[in-house]
Amino acid sequence: MTLTIFGATGRTGRLLVEQALREGHAVRAFVRSRQKLADQQALTSDLLTPVEGDVTDAAPVAEAVRGADAVLSALGHAEGAPDDVQTVGTRHIVRAMETHGVNRIISETGAGVSAPQDESHLGGRVMNGLLRLVAPKVAEDADGHAEVLRGSGRDWVIVRAPRLTNGAHTGTYREGYLKLGPFDKIARADVADFMLREADPEHQRWHQEAPMVAY
């Protein structure tokens, strides 16, 4: 497959690129700086094509999406990024997908984003409340990006993760509409594992849904 990965030099995005290349996929990595990608020696391969740009600029986003079989987004709030970077970036990505006939998108976000299938429970309410207290603008942006995807008409998956760690890639985790609490966690490497599986037509399980992943 040819995969376009946004947020490719971030902590989850870098692992997405590494795992995708290891699996033999062609990767179009959207980065703000080619040099930052070049500095990460694990991210070198003839299958890797960097696309430099700002996700808030529609033109380079469209160039990155052209020719992709699926899009994976690990956009985050890097230093200096606008408060609504995930929402604006996702809007540009969706428009580019429409233009170039790309249907499948898998987007990482936090567990604070709600879904109609969620069952209310104390642990979830506590976690959600803390997230919105500590980082209200990040939470608002995550919600906004989810609304863009839900209204896009694309075959989207919103991957909701609790506390992220730098633990090992295990390939073993729970997925679905989970009752998560403040102490639940998952390694970024396993979030990347799940996202790549959902990009593969032979293994994907979720369509226009927002599953959680956690140990």
Brief rundown of the structure:
The chain is an alpha/beta fold and 215 residues long.
Shape: globular
The total domain count is 1
The CATH class turns out to be Alpha Beta
Distance between the termini: 28 Å
Count every helix, treating DSSP H or I runs of 4 or more residues as helices.
7
User: What is the mean pLDDT?
Assistant: 92
Biggest beta sheet summary: 6 strands, parallel
CATH arch. level architecture: 3-Layer(aba) Sandwich
Extended strand count: 10
Query: Can you list the strand order of the major beta sheet?
Result: 3-2-1-4-5-6
Radius of gyration, CA atoms, in whole angstroms = 16 Å
Strand content: 15-25%
Structural class: alpha/beta
User: How much helix, percentage-wise, in residues?
Assistant: 25-40%
CATH superfamily: NAD(P)-binding Rossmann-like Domain
Instruction: Give the H and E element order.
Output: EHEHEHEHEHHEEEEHE
List low-pLDDT spans. Answer: none
CATH topology annotation: Rossmann fold
Structural notes for this entry:
With 215 residues, this protein is of the alpha/beta class. It has a single domain, classed as NAD(P)-binding Rossmann-like Domain (Rossmann fold, 3-Layer(aba) Sandwich), CATH 3.40.50.720. Helix content is 38%, strand content 21%. It has helices spanning 11-22, 34-38, 58-65, 85-100, 122-134, 136-150, 188-199; strands at residues 2-6, 26-31, 48-52, 70-73, 104-110, 155-161, 163-165, 174-176, 185-187, 212-214. Strand 2 (26-31), helix 2 (34-38) and strand 3 (48-52) form a beta-alpha-beta unit. Helix 3 (58-65) packs across helix 4 (85-100), helix 4 (85-100) runs parallel beside helix 6 and helix 5 (122-134) packs across helix 6. The two termini are 28 Å apart.
